[in-house]
Design goal:
4-stranded antiparallel β-sheet; 3 domains; globular; 23 strands; 25% helix; single chain; alpha+beta; OB fold (Dihydrolipoamide Acetyltransferase, E2P); Dihydrolipoamide Transferase
Amino acid sequence: MSVEVRLPDLGEGIEEADVLSVLVGVGQSVAAGDSVIEIESEKATLEVPTDAGGTVTGIQVKSGDTIAVGQLVLTLEPDGAEPPPQRPAAEPEIDEAPRPTADGAADGPTVEPPPASDGPEVHIAPRFADAEVDAGDRPVAAAPSVRIFAREIGVDVRQVEGSGPAGRISIDDVKAHARRRTSAPAPDRSEPLPDFAQWGPIERVRLSRLRRTLADNLAQSWATIPHVTLFHEADVTDIEAMRAEHKERAAAQGAKLTITAFLLPIVAAALKAHPNVNASLDLTAGEIVQKGYYHLGVAADTERGLLVPVVRDADTKGVIEIAAELTGIAERARAGRLTPDEMQGATFTISNLGGLGTGFFTPIVNPPEVAILGVGRAVPRATLHDDAMQTRLMLPLSLSFDHRALDGADGARFLSWIADALEQPTMLAMES
């Protein structure tokens, strides 16, 4: 009996992914745990393994396909399996009951043809009791009454996130989706672009799933969150001296010591002192959700686009430990091997563009967070220090925040706290 390999649950509400490459071919032998396809989801690039071994007998996907969770990827014939027995020709079933003809008269017995089959029948249970597969092979768990209601109010039921068991969609889910769509309209894409080719050669490059997701999420954030950005400079001369002093020690532990590694525990301490920044805004309930954990997203530039891996419990880790974790994250990000779990659960995000020479900039809040810190390139500049003009290393800081959750004074106090701690790292360590 053939074994079916399907796209597994990817977690975090991810329902589909793009196939980047197929890693096996028909006739190839694979073992349990071997990767068979490489996919790109909204969160990461990852390889999908098979949990059974055997010989590949059929491949149902190809590079460039978009496939849904639960969709058939390939079939295997288990090693050592005997070929399925040939089914003898079935005798036609005779319906003995007379069947009326068009004029109502009883006709003779009818013959029901046997089902066409050249092998054992395989009955695949539906993923949900009343799920149907809509366009794009996406299983949708919703009762007929829910589908009818969604069509009546103009909602694509495939886009609705179900809150019931196994993602089952209710009428309340459809209503909530409609309210969100109404209150946060998507960017207008109806205006056609001009024919650029009339002015010269062009090339069209397909957007990756990650770039399409970033485009939607950033547009949604900008359209729905009233952004405010504050700017500040921090004197990091002493921190740079500490970095230079301990970089060899960090390198011996496989870590690259950067200012970001010093910044993370400082930001975690600032969030503890300002709990409304380490929070999310629940407008439905009329509440600020303050979080008692400090997981910091660190935006990373990769060939695939912007990724935001998370350093968990940054308030409990030392600078060199964080540096080692950031080094590993950067390596996995460049190799496209970050897992979805490594990019979930952040309470606050830091975006450091200093390595690219940027100074101040206006980062966009990453919902459901309420603030994001932008870090620019530290530059030496003459400034007044200890009542004398000195050349000091100044770090540009840019804080964007959701004005619905935080007032300007809240943001200013938070940013000043970070700048003061950067300028007095020894005092921060003593207080910790």
